[in-house]
Amino acid sequence: MTDTNDVLITADDVWAGYIPGVSILNGCTLEVKRGELVGIIGPNGAGKSTFLKALFGLVPVTGGSFNLDGDDITNLRADQLVRRGIGFVPQTNNVFPSLTIAENLEMGAFQAPKTYKQRLEVVGDLFPVLIDRKDQRAGSLSGGERQMVAMARALMMDPKVLLLDEPSAGLSPARQDETFVRTRAINQTGVTVIMVEQNARRCLQICDRGYVLDQGTAAYSATGRELLKDPKVIELYLGTLGA
Ligand SMILES: Nc1ncnc2c1ncn2[C@@H]1O[C@H](COP(=O)(O)OP(=O)(O)OP(=O)(O)O)[C@@H](O)[C@H]1O
Ligand SMILES: [Mg+2]
Question: 20 to 30 Å CA-CA from 40: which of 62, 117, 187, 199?
Answer without folding.
Answer: 62
